[in-house]
Each structure stands twice: as C-alpha cells, then as structure tokens.
Write a structure and sequence with these properties.
The structure is a homotetramer of 479-residue chains. Chain A is built from 16 helices and 25 strands. In chain A, strand 3 (56-63) and strand 4 (66-73) form a beta hairpin.
C-alpha cells in the first residue's frame, strides 16, 4: 500500500485527497446491565478503530431513559473528546467511525443514525455496502419513504420500520434478509444491543464479554483497548441479540458461501487484531513469506526494507524466508498527518518527503527489496523509489504483498476509478519503468488465497473481478 | 423584554442559558432563472434574520443540477461564512436560522432538511410549530415512517411523500391542510421555489421581486439587505409556487380567522421590518404612547429611558405622548454577547453589569420611567433597577409595552414554564417589590389589541390563554 | 464618527480594515492586601475597556510570590476568558487592551510587558504615545539596549532599568520626566501598584478604592463594572504609588499646561464613564445642543436621528435644543461585528447594509437631520445617506458633533493619512455633494472648546494642527 | 526510551505532561542571494525538526527590506502553516522549534527573538543551555539590561548589543566567548546568516549548500527534506558567516575538548539524520549489538521486539548479533498524539493502551526480549510489560540501549528531578520487580562510549555525573 502522505488529516476528505484506498466504517457497541460510563467506553473503542474511518464519527447512548447522540466531522479525539469529559451513566450505546466516498461526505451521513419509528427507538451503526441498496431504496421511496442522506444505513432503518413483524427477531429478519452485499451492524433497539453480520461475512464483527458487560466491535483491537476479555466472531449471517432476557442468536436465510474481504487481512485491519478468526499479523507474515518464495531463484539483493508501516510485517516474513537482513531503510515522521493544508497541490513530492525519509546508512550502495502491501496509483511509490535512489540505493526491487488491484469493490472499500489503477494500465515491467524500480512483483490471486486458506471463503473481487453480488443501482439522490 | 444578558452567544444554548424568550426560526428563499451566487445571497438574508434564531443555521441550493447543503450549529457568520467565500452559481436555494428549545437542540434538527422521495428532491425550511404535530407523527410512524429528529419539519416532508397526489399543488394541499398551528415555509421542490403560510397566519412571510429574481423571507429586512425591491405579504393560507412556468398561488382550505402573533410586533421582528403588513417601528411607538396614556394622571417623573435596545422605540412613543424628556440612561456594551463562558452561574449580576451600564449623569437624583417591551422572569429587571439606583435614580417606574405574560405558546415561541413567569406569581405591586421598582405597569390585552387594530386578527394566547389550537401531543421521541 | 462597519472583529486588524479611527489602549490595575481573584477582576475591567482596543490584550499578576502573565491577540472574552475559569488568588495585577497601528501589530507588542531588571520585577501597561520616543530609543540603543518590539512601553521599561536611582520614586521620576507626549500607565513593581499620568494629561486615568482594595483604570466604567466605589482622577503629572506602606503620590516636573484629548469626550470614552472629571454623556449632549444652535435659523427639518450608537447622545442634545422630534431612523444589527471575512473588499456597501438599516416608517417623506460624532473618510456616511434615501427620506442634513478632522495625532489616536481625510479634500459643500447629503455642517474648534470649558485645557491638534509636542522620530525598527 | 504516551500533543506541555524527556530546541536558517520563498522553506525544515521541540515555534525573515516574524505556541503545521500559504520572497530567514521546561513555557520565550539594537537588526534561534547564564544575566541586569523572558537566547542578544566591537566578527566573539555550556545558533544580522556552535559542540549543527543557497540546520534531515545537497558539520567552536561578501568562518577561543551529547545519538536525533559526523541509524544498531553481546551467555529467549519507534533500530542490532528473530510484538497507533485531553490523570494506563498494542500472535507463549532506548521513570515500561503479559508473553526481558539515567543535564535536555529517575531508586533487579519484567539490563557508560568511539569526545554527564561545566545560577526571574 502506498503510504498515506496526507498532511491534512482532520480535514474533509476533499482537502486530504491523497488517501489511496478508503475503508467505509467501523462499528462498536456496549451493553451493561449495571450503568457505566458508556460514552467514554465507546470513545476508547472508536479511538482504536480510527484506522477504519477518519471522516466523521459518532456515538449514541441511553442515559436516564433518554437517548442521546453526538456526531461530528473529523477524528474521534477532537470530535468526541469534549463529550466524554464528564461521566454519563448508561446501560446501552453504539458508536461509529466513517470514511466516505467523495459524493456522500457530510454530517447528514454521519452515524449512528437514531430514529423514532413504530418499532420504538432504534440507533444503527453500519460497516459495509448494500449492493442492491439503490433498488431497495427505489422501492421504499415509491411507498412514501423519505431519505435524508445517501448512506445505506438509512435504508436499513426504513426496512425495520416498514416490516409488519412487531417482534424484534421478526423485523430484523424481514428487513435484513432481502439485503445483498456487506453489512456488519451494531444496533440499539429499545433495551437491546444487536450485532448482525451479512451471510457472506464480508466485513469482520466480534462480540466480547467482560463480567456482565457485552461489547461489539469490528475488530478485536477495540476490545483489547479496554481490558482482557473473552471474545468470538459474530458468524456470517448471525444476528446476536442481548437484552434483559439475556443473549441469544439466530441465523439469516438464505445461507451463503463466506466471502470474507481479503483486503482486511492485507491492509485494513490493525495488526494486533484478529479478524475472520485469524491473526492479522500472522497473515501478513505469510504473505511476505510467499513473496520471498517467488524470488527464491535469487535477486542478489542485500537488504529487505518495509514501507512503514503498511509493509512492516510482510517485510518480516520476506526477510525470514529469504534469509536477507531486515532493516529500517525508510523512517516515518511522527508529526506528519496533522492539520495542515499544503499551499499547492503540485507539491505532492514535498509532502512525501515530509512524511517519509530514506536512511542513507541502510540503503547506500545496496540492492534493496522494498516491501509494501499493495499498489494503487503508483504515484507515491515512484517518489519513494526516488528517495531511496537519492540515498544511494544501487537497486530497488518493489514487492507487493497482494495481487494487482484492478476492479472496483461493491462491499465497502473505496477504490479509485479503474483508469487510475496502475495495474489496469501497465504490466509489472511497465510499472517498474514508471516508478523507477529495477523490478516490481505482485502475489498472484491463487497464491494469495492458498496462503490464507482460500477454502475458508474470501472475496477477492478487487483483484479478479469475481463479484459475488453485482451492483444494482437505483435512482440515487445526487447529493 | 429583559435584555439578553448572555455573554455566550455562539455557544450551545445550554451554555447561554439566560436567554429569556426564544423564537423558533426564520426562513429565506431565492429563485433566479439566470444563475447567480445564491448561497451568498442566502447568507446575507439569513444574516439579516439572525435575530430569529441563533442556535443553528443552514442553506440548501441547486448547483449544476446537483443539490448541495450546509448546516451547522451557531450563528450565520461563523457557521456559513466559510462556504460563501467562493461563488456558487445556482438558480434555486433556501435557508434557515433556528432557535431551539432545550430538548430539541442538535445538528439533527438543523434545517433546511433535504430529502429524496417519490415526489423527487425536496428541501424545506420551517418557521412555526404544528400543534397537532405529535398526533400526525404518531399516525405516520404507525404507517412505517421513521423520524430522525424531533422537529415538525420532518413531519411535513413525510406528509409530502405520503401524499398520493403526484402533482405539486396536489401534494402540497394534501400534506398541509391537515396541519394545525403555525408554519411559514420556504420550500425547494425540483425546479420550484414554494412559499407557504398557514391559514391563521401566525408567523410572517414575505415575497419580493427584483428583476426576474424571486425572494422569500420571514421579514422584509432580509429583502432590504439585498436591494430595494417590490414585496408583498404571503397571505395567511396562501401557497405561492414559482417555477419555470412562472408564479402562481392558491389558498389552503379551510379558511381560518387570522391569528397573527402579536409578539412579533412587540419584540421579535426587527424594527426596520414590515410584518403583517405594518411597520414594526410604528407599532412600537403606538404601544409606548398607549403606556403613557395610562400614566396621564401624572407620575411626577423627570425622564424616560429605554432598556436598550428592546425598549428603545416604545420609549420614544412614551416620551412623545407624556412630554417627558427621552434620554439614554442605560448604555449597552457592543462587546458583550461574544464567546465566553462565565466561570460560575451565580455571577448573573456581573453578566448584566458587563452588558448594561447606568449613566449617572442621566439618572442621578431623577425620577425615572424605564421602558421595556415585556417582563418574563423578572430577574434581569431587578438587576437593572438596582443599577439605576446605584447611579443615583431617586425613583424607578417600570413600564412594559405588553400585557402580563402568563401562558405557553404552541405556535413557535419558546416561553419558560408557567411557574417561572413572574406575572403568574405576583401582581404588579408584588413585582415592583420584587424587582425594587417604585411602580410597575403593563398594557392590558384589550388595549394592546385596540392599539394594533385588533380587528385584523391577532393571537394573544400567551397573554390571555385563548389558544386558537390546543396542543395535541403524540408519543414524542424523548431526545 | 462613521460606524464601525466591520463584520470581522476578532480578526487581525488587516482583515477588519474598515475601522475608521483607532485608539491605542486601555489600562487597568488592582492591588489588594488580602489576596483575591485578581485575574478575574482584571478580566471584568478589561471587558469594560474593550472599546479602547480590540487587537490584543493581556494581564499580569502576582500569584504565590511568582509573577504570571497571559497575553493574546484578539478580544478580551475569547483571549483571556479561558484563563479566568479558575480562581487565582493574588494581591497585585495589571491589564491592558491594545489597538495598534498597522505596522506594529503582533504578539510581540501585546502588553503588559513583564521584565526582570536591576530594579526587580516590573510589569507595565501603557496608554498613549511618546512623541520623542524615537529619539530616546536611539539614545538607549546606543548605550546597548535591545528592543524586541516597536511599542513605546518597552522604552519606558528600559528607562526604569537605566536609571541609577535605586528607590522607586527616584527611578520613576528619572525615567518619566524626559518623556514627551502621552502616557497613562498602570505599573506593577515588586509589591507596589503604580499609576502614572503624563504632565499634559492627554489620556484619562482614574483611581478607585473599595475597602482595602485599590483599582486603577483608564475610565470609570471599569470601576463601575465591579461595584460602586469612591474614585478620583489621577491628576496630570501625578504618580500614585500603592504599596505595603500605604498610598502616596508625587508630581512630575516640569508642570505643563493640561492638554486633555478632546476626542475622548467626542467619541472614544464610554458614555457612562467620567473622564477628565466630567461626564462623557453630559459633554455629548452639550455638543449636540451647540450643533442645534448653529442651525437655529431653521432647516425646515422634520426629525433628528442618530447614527447608532456614536451619534446617539449628541442627537438627544440636538433634538432638545431644536425642538425637533428625536427618533430611531437607523437600526443597528446586534449580530454584525462577528467573526466573518466578507468575500471581496468591494462589498463594503453590503457590509454597511448588514450592519445598519434605515427605518422607512421614520424617514419616509421626511427632511432628516442625521447626527454623527465626526467624519473621517466619508465613505460610510455616503452609504448611510443612500440608505436613508432608499427608505424615502426627502432631505438629509448631516451634522457632526466635532470640527473638521484634518491632522495626525502624536498622542495615541490612530488617524488615517491626511490625504484620506475627507475634510482635507473638500469643504462642507463639497462633502455634501460627495456623500449625497443636502447639507453638511461641523462644529468649529472654538465652539467645541467653549462648550467643553476650554480653559480646562484640551488638545485639539487633530482639528487645528496645534501639536503640543512635535513628533521626534528616531531610527525605528521597521517591523 | 519510554514511548510518549501523550494523547494531547498540540496542547501546552502542562496538559501533555507525560512526556518523559524533553529536548530544548532545533534551529534552521536559509540565505539565498536570489529571493525565494524562505518562510515556506523554513516551514519544511522546521517540520523535519519537529521532534526536537513541540511547544512553540517561529520564523523570522527579511521581505522587501523589512523584517517579519511569526511565533506561536504549538506544532509547526498548525502554528505556522497558515503563514506559508502565500509566497513571501526573501533572501534571509531563520526558524526555531522549542520544547520548554515547565517553568519557562509561554509565548514570551518562543523564538526566534528579533531585536533592534546598536548592531542593527538581529534575530536569533538557539538550541542549548548556557550553564553560566544566570551569572551573566546578573551582570547584564546590573548594567541596566531588562529581560522579558527566561530563555538564555535573550542573554546572548544583550551580549551582542553590549559589545563595544562594532564589526560582526568582533561582537560575535566578544559575546560568545564568555558563554559556558551549550549553544548551536542560527542568527540573522542585517544581510548575514550566521551559524555558531559552542567550543564543546554539545548540540549538533550542520551547514549545507545548494546552488547559491546556504542552509543551516540542527540535523541533516532538515536538509534532506528540501533536496539532495552537499553538507558538513559546523565544527565545535566554529562560527560561519554568510553575507554578500561570501562565506567564511572563524573559531572561538578557548578551544575545548569536544563534549558531544551522547543522548542525541541514543534518542533525540532522527534516525535518517547524521549528527556529529555519524549516522544516527548506524549508532543505534551498534548499541543494540552491544546489548546482545552482554547477553551472549544466553537468555533462552525466543524473539526480539522493539518498543516502537524508539527501540526499533537497536532491536535490529540486538536481533542480528544474537541471532534471535526480530518481530513487531508491539503495534503503535497512528492516531494517538492528537488533540485530546483525557478526562482524568489516573487513566495513564488507558492512555498507553490507546497508543500501544501488544500483538498476541507474536508474543504469546514466548520469552521476549523487549528493546527500548532508555528508562526514565519506569511507569510506562511497567504498563507495556503488562500488555505483553496480557497478550501471553511467558517471559519479558527488558534491555535498554543506554546506561542508567541518574543525573540532570545543564546543556539542553529536560530530565526529570533525580528522585523521579527510577535508576536513582533501584538497581536493575529492583527495577525488574517494579516493572514486572523477568530481567532488566542497561549498557554501561564505558561500553557506550567505546561503541560510539569515545575518543571523539562525548558528554555522558546524565549517566555518570561528570559535568563539563557546573551550573552557575543567578537571580532568576521566577516566572
């Protein structure tokens, strides 16, 4: 993955436009029979899920019988920090971090969405993308529903309200089963916390317990941030309900083959997390090892360096398998990524220079294997390779711990238009020429899936174009 | 009216809690066949309507076929100023300023609300209060509608969408006619600007024309801010539609007797505005004259001073009729009302001292007639009377250009709970004792209506309890 | 005075560039043998002196034997409010508000300046301008002094340190007596509060007592803001020292004829203040009456209106003497003057429209006498006269409660360059033509001084060019 | 080094109080005969030196013959970013980042300081600490100098001004030679850029050339950030002057044995920098190798992990020499360190949990060697060791790539009071018990110096108490 060279985090995404790939969201939820400071707990959980979305964030919680919510643009700490200075005793709450595509930016799409309807009070936090959302939206609109935002989350709430099943399990089933695509949901409904995951299981979702408290989170790192606790994956198609009657779950129909998003393991999830029942760190080491196997005939390289931090762990795997020394040939500024708009856009190269630094001691005179997780547009990689050359690197071999990225994603990842993806324009030799590398090599899809136990069921549509659900567009609000 | 002693404007209302009476909203709209910079135009109009709501504000506009909107908490200049730095060519837009009751505060209630529904795209800005809103909301909820906020505006949009009449006039009629209470609306629907006013005409609404451009605003001051233009009142019950086919209007059924809010003339509207077809300034002079008539037997006073600025104009009327000299015995700081939270709440007296200053030269040794527009809780008046005494006033006679305020308003004014209203606790002599005045006198309701041509039809429910529409509560979301 | 049409207060002065006349500063000081919350007390005093300077502000105080200070750009409430949320027990402190000329803007010129020198710890807050400051600065620089800012205040501190007199009275005398020009000073020196005023008495300075506490302030309004108390003027040339040994004062040599700044009474001071031993309000009424006397042969006017708020009080005087009715023909927005940068500078007219509103009811069809305090560039007056015409005024007669402004001030007022002053370009008839008025009339200097008891000694150099001290420039740092 | 667990960067240091060791400053300077955008160039250089100081920052530059400066509290991007949006053509400028001890915080100590004096205009940026500063300050104060801040930098400027040598080399020599302690200076004097370094060479200083432009910076990373260029160390005791006459240098008397700060190599400098003529990265690898040599008898460990990022490079060295695998057992949040004040101080453990995450996959069931650069108070290390235990680590052996930290620094490092340093309270076994480690081991001073070529002359006073210059305190301003 090209490093995020933005020095404008905290700004709307249009200002921090150099983000290469975007992830839609992360969700969190807490239920405690004994009232505790749930807004602050959610704050810590969302802080740990910040990597899943930096555009907006929000929390909703019960407090003395009332429902309160705070949503704001920006990062968790500045946007929500002021609301958790005081204790808010609560028994139920959910939270959300959001990264949005350009079109749907704005506070009206921030989550959780809290509504009052014939099922009572419901709040919803959603990670994913409903591939038949446009179609369903058209249907609901025809029946008289109004849509205030463009996010699929509003659609799901409408579906809850439109259901004629009065009971919780009933309307959840009736609303969720027609949905195609990806959703991992944290829901508040009256006194219940609900966690639901689509039958394909595109996005991760975990549930944990500590004492009488229940926690729901996109990744286990949000649970670790609080305390050691028992946890398990919410299964694909599973809906878990926790209310005064206890915890129970049911499965949505129809069952579907699992389609876990392989990019969660490659790039999105935090390395200390478990997603899809496996360690993210371990998966990345395996990918690095598989890359090294490809070069086993020998590159004559001297050293393996990661593009920090996205390439760190695969580089460990590559170094171990290849026997080449691992070193930090690129240093990363701790202070980049702060509020600052660079004067002009053509200074992208300067932005990378402020963020990443080649270490001459490590690379001078060396043949370097540079490991990154994937390649999107190639522009940043070109600059990094040049930094290494300036620092004296004799050869630069770029290795990507992923296949060639060529297709859009309809299940929650924001991938640039196809024509912007370098792998749609050039083969590896062409890419090497364009970014100034001596060689460039990817991991084939088959190998990727083999390494990650493909029989467990992964979605690799962004690499191979095999979309489990095609996109069914509807008339979309053009905001 | 007690002066607003807040030194915390720009903060959420809970911080600036000393606001005495709150007004719900102001609306604005622009349509121009020739694209112009409508966001900036709306900015100037909303700036001129700022006195009608300081909690949040927003604009929605068409731009190159897309609809865009910006809503934020706070005052017009800081909240929207940054969005109007660049020109946005547009042919249609509406705007809103909002003051909210404590319960309904928050960005989810900011307007305009923009929705996508089976009638197409609609944006709505609403001033008023629907007295059967709870009841209607219950009905809509039962049918499957979801409510994201607590404001009546969302209700109106649901009603548009639920209507089976496909044509614009049809669904407007079908949605609006069941509404009881107050609404002055600026609406965007596809290519049309719509202005609508409830049949009782509680809240003001004006329409103006300049060249081919059409403007809608709560008060004429928002039109004057742009340029001299022709304007007229949108009549009670009138709905004006301006689209590519031109401008036309129809009237809602049933016709009702007009119930113009008398408090608009007493306090809310800006003195340079016309509302309800009459000059606000002129009305206030008449009220001051009527007050003087009540004291015609002689108070032995030396001087008439207003509480700035709410008592300014009535004081002019009082002075003219009584023959007593008018003077500025209280000065007002230009710098109060800025962002600042006073350390402790018990420093209310200090807050008033920072905001208002008695001028010893004017009042020392004098018997003073102090004119204000109305009396709510009486706390600020007590402090002001004390300031005058400290500055040497021999006698202080408080005269209010309104009747005793005793009842709630269901049509868009935020009046404190009945037990907080000083006129529900005390008679004028008791009030005089409590605030330290030598005498206190109000204007009787009958006299008020007589002065203002009562046959034109005013609502004076907050003074006399004669509510044209009783409140019909529904199950309300408790946010 | 033309109204301040800025809608950008709180911004640096370059952004809020339409301020017509600027005042340099206001000072405050408190000493209490019993420790009290002096930072908060100074906050309230500076808030009341905000009209004397809006660019930067600061406070310095003793706390537990240490000296602390806070200085920041901007208005008192946002800049200092956060520092007074908690109580800081203290026995001594001073404060300052500053308006600066364009060149000297910046935090390095904010006051109070706190220094450590051979006289111990000294903090200084200065209102005025030293006309031989450049010359003295050259001398000190030659001896090895370094200057970090461009303000005269630093010069005074250097002079204290350079003095060989070790005792407080000694070094104060030695440092202050060579100064020419204007200074009203609040000084902390070790345990003492010192108030000092130049022998000409250009700028006002008051001292008040409440219990064992001593207060120093530029105007009495800063004392009234706290509590009723006894106060007196610090005399021209007087230096008052308050320390553990009690309060005493001495007079600087040589004695000079008093040269009180007449503009303080005309415009700068707050109307509820006393400055130079007389009520500001009373002075302005007298000026209005004198204006009316000039028109005694009859204008045939119908009504007298002030430009709010600068013309308010003189308009009262004019109306009383002329017998014409006083009314509010111009309304002023309470919400202008907030943080907002207008998109383009050529929208000055729009800025005035947002700030001031003509009231058609008052002026339509009338011959209007419009009273303002003075005329600087004339640009705003032109717009206001046009507003009155648009609202239907038949005739507009502009009357200024001051002479024609023609000269610079070397003693603390920021007057635009001579070529920008309309009275240097045009005679009253020419001005009337340029601003679109039917007539324009000023108050002659002789009449002004006569009205204000000229024998008391006023400086009217900005009107007549008779500068008590010529400017003696030195080599100035060109920041 | 314990990781900085602050989640409050950007706030004043009192809020972000968990910083373990502080560095005083970084300096930068640019001179270009051809005017270029020097403020922006300095911005990029200071951005690259941000790790040397986060409390305040500033730039001063020549522009069209005038000197301008901007100083503000906080980080480079938010504090200075807005000033570099527009181009400022300039031929000369300097900049500074500052970290301050608790006492001397505040804008009055921000640099560069710009003064006007008998040598003309001088601006100064200083990194270091003058150990006889108090004494010299007393002397200058006695002669009449005034001090506005507590920083030594003001002292140096006074000394320039007091010198009777009129020529540049003369007054530089006369002012600098009496100074004891540490200083690396970037100075603007009229048309000249001056770089000066104390004869002991405590702090690094580099000079680089690119075309006709000259650059000065504390570390080479600030030069690399701009472009590849030639550079060299400014030698201990060397003063380089670059003016219209070209570049020349002289050496201060007396010559002294070099005393380079060893902590620059251990922790402060950026790994991609060269300081003291050697690669920081290479030095840290050597320290890690030396640590491994100490454990050569065998620990039975399974894995080597760094505390990111301070232990990264030494961990590489340890892993290589020991043959143990290197891995990322601790992950670091990219989003911590943003503006956020944690509700209560006792949540330090939670703060570390938000910042650092143990990776179970890596450490579970393992005996772990955890490498950090040094140990200050030990509180954070205790929490980290506990994180590793929670993640399943069987044994945790803590290795520090530095000796035991026991003494204060008088030359520019902010070390906590002696009683807070864990190595003054406990021996390694005691430390191991307190932080919950199975063992703790440091690098002896002799070995450290041997590894780093001690004959080159290092200061290791913070480890061994051998201070080259004792502290000579004077009467200090107690702010």
């Amino acid at each position: 993955m090209e490093p995020n060279v933005s020095v404008g985090d905290g700004l709307p995404p249009s200002a921090a436009s150099c983000q290469s790939l975007g992830h839609f969201c992360g969700v969190a939820g807490v239920r405690s029979p004994e009232p505790v400071d749930i807004p602050r707990t959610l704050f810590y959980m969302l802080f740990s899920l910040q990597h899943r979305g930096q555009e907006s964030c929000g929390i909703a919680w019960e407090e003395e019988g009332k429902w309160r919510s705070r949503r704001d643009m920006g990062m968790v700490a500045p946007a929500l920090g002021r609301y958790v200075q005081e204790c808010h005793l609560s028994s139920l709450g959910i939270g959300h971090v959001r990264y949005s595509t350009a079109g749907g930016s704005g506070i009206q799409n921030a989550q959780p969405i809290v509504v009052d309807c014939n099922k009572g009070r419901i709040a919803l936090a959603h990670n994913g993308n409903i591939s038949n959302g446009g179609e369903l939206r058209n249907g609901l609109t025809a029946e008289g529903s109004i849509f205030q935002g463009t996010a699929d989350s509003e659609l799901i709430l409408h579906a809850f309200s439109r259901s004629r099943k009065p009971d919780r399990e009933g309307f959840l089933r009736e609303a969720l089963e027609p949905l195609e695509g990806a959703y991992s949901l944290a829901i508040m409904h009256e006194d219940a916390l609900v966690a639901a995951r689509d039958p394909s299981g595109f996005r991760p979702l975990y549930i944990g317990h500590s004492g009488s408290k229940t926690f729901v989170a996109s990744e286990t790192c949000a649970l670790h941030a609080l305390a050691p606790m028992d946890y398990r994956e919410v299964e694909p198609g599973e809906v878990v309900i926790v209310d005064d009657a206890g915890e129970r779950s049911f499965f949505l129909e129809p069952k579907r083959p699992p389609k876990r998003c392989v990019f969660e393991l490659i790039y999105f999830a935090r390395p200390d997390s478990e997603v899809f029942g496996r360690s993210v760190h371990a998966a990345r080491v395996l990918l690095g090892e598989a890359l090294a196997d490809q070069d086993s005939s020998g590159l004559g390289a001297d050293i393996v360096i990661p593009v920090p931090d996205s390439g760190n762990i695969s580089a460990i795997g590559y170094a171990r398998r290849s026997g080449l020394p691992f070193d930090f040939g690129l240093a990363r500024s701790h202070y980049a990524g702060r509020s600052f708009t660079l004067p002009t856009k053509d200074q992208r190269e300067l932005m990378v220079r402020l963020k990443l630094h080649a270490v001459p001691e490590v690379v001078s005179g060396k043949s370097v294997v540079m490991i990154d997780d994937s390649l999107v547009r190639g522009t940043t990689s070109r600059i990094i390779v040049n930094l290494l050359r300036e620092a004296g690197a004799r050869e630069v071999h770029v290795r990507l711990a992923a296949p060639e990225l060529k297709w859009p994603c309809y299940y929650g990842i924001d991938i640039p238009d196809r024509e912007q993806l370098i792998s749609n324009r050039l083969d590896p030799e062409g890419i090497a020429r364009e970014i100034g590398a001596d060689s460039v090599r990817f991991l084939p899809v088959a190998r990727l899936l083999e390494v990650l136990n493909g029989d467990r069921g992964f979605c690799s549509a962004c690499f191979d174009g095999h979309h489990p659900f095609p996109l069914k567009p509807g008339r979309k609000d053009d905001r």
